[in-house]
Prior knowledge:
Blueprint: E1 4-8, H1 11-23, E2 28-32, E3 44-48, H2 56-72, E4 77-81, H3 94-104, E5 110-113, E6 121-124, E7 127-130, E8 133-134, H4 153-158, E9 165-168, H5 170-173, H6 177-189, E10 194-197, H7 202-211, E11 217-220, H8 228-234, E12 253-258, H9 263-273, E13 278-280, H10 289-301, E14 309-312, H11 317-327, H12 329-349, E15 352-358, H13 360-370, E16 372-382, E17 385-392, E18 397-402, H14 411-421
Parallel strand pairs: 1-3, 1-4, 2-3, 4-11, 5-10, 5-11, 9-10, 12-14, 12-15, 13-14, 15-18
Antiparallel strand pairs: 2-16, 6-7, 7-8, 16-17, 17-18
Helix pairs in contact: 2-3, 6-7, 10-12, 11-12, 12-13
Amino acid sequence: MPLLGCIADDFTGATDLASMLVRNGMRTVQLIGVPSAAPPDADAIVVALKSRTAPAAAAVEQSLASLAWLRGAGCRQFFFKYCSTFDSTEAGNIGPVADALLRALDSGFALACPAFPANARSVYQGHLFVGSALLNESGMEHHPLTPMTDANLVRVLSRQTEGTVGLVPHAVVEQGAAAITRAMTALAEQGRRYAIVDAVSDSQLQAIGAAAAGHALITGGSGVAMGLAENFRAAGLLPARQDPGALPSVAGAAAVLAGSCSRATLQQIGAARERLPVLELDALATPDAGALAARALDWAGGRLGDAPVVIAASAPPDKVAALQAKLGRDAAGTLIEQALAAIAAGLVSRGVRRLVVAGGETSGAVVSRLGVHSLRIGGEIDPGVPWTYAEGDGEPLLLALKSGNFGGREFFLRAFEVLALG
Ligand code: ADP
């Protein structure tokens, strides 16, 4: 029976959290959207919603429905995962969702800690830093959907919740789990609904995790989840897992689809070009998703096998700008996403069962076209990018969904080498 039930406000954030839980010894399955099927066999379940920028009422409704399902599945502790840059607006959705989850759990208090020092996100005196910059001077103040113009998380969360917000400062966190527990208990007794908890190191995140052992709900980034598995082991609920990321093996051809135009992905395509067949889609010459897909599948046809083919829409900024100027920004993105989703479906129907997808939005489009409902999380190829065993409407396949900027230069080759080793 699952122990930890998680609700994530976006897709790649869900995978990030799931990967963290596997690393710490929990067999973890990520479900896409509010679940309805029977629960999978796992120690932790992460429900991936797209609720970060949804209207607050919709985010609350989806989160509560997910919570109800996770409770029904037997989970005994719950985690609300948001971005390590606390992405939200004055209207939410972190506060409203956390308020609703606490109410549903009949609990009056939760900690809030987005810190993720490994990714240069730290919280000090309640202020969120990205590297050495305060959140509101980190570039996040210009985010198109969730501009973060205040680094003081006590203030930010206060504006989003009906409750009040306190702080467990660094000087307390440094003293370890017992001191953190005492401080949180004191805040709860004062009637505070939330505590922003400072953290600048992994050992502090571990201590915060230990201090939250008895909490019904924990809220934060994936960093603060790193200590939770140990609580379950200490309570005798979670056995020591030899290989929590073990995946069933899947035979079939290999392919890479790239829709991210990030610098990292462009470099990865460059590196792949030296060793693998690479097709670059020219959407400017052929602004037609069906035609692009048909041509790509034609090209791939005779080349499919154990060695991956690479099909990329990715382009440098000047070419992206040219397509956007021609079609408009949204239409350009949609065209490419539709083409890549159709190519993914065509590749799978031609026997591809090991597929790497580069790009967050691109991954969403592919997963939805393939009718994937659940991802069992495997070992990581590079930090934050695991192989997953994907199940849904079609036959199972192995999927690696890479957010644009993730992964080293040789990522596309490494992904399949890692599988061969397994
Ligand atoms: P990332 O994870 O790097 O943000 P995404 O897949 O989320 O990658 O976003 C990349 C977006 O760029 C997608 O909407 C994709 O369709 C679009 N795109 C990809 N290639 C091109 C191109 N050549 N011209 C214009 N837009 C493109």
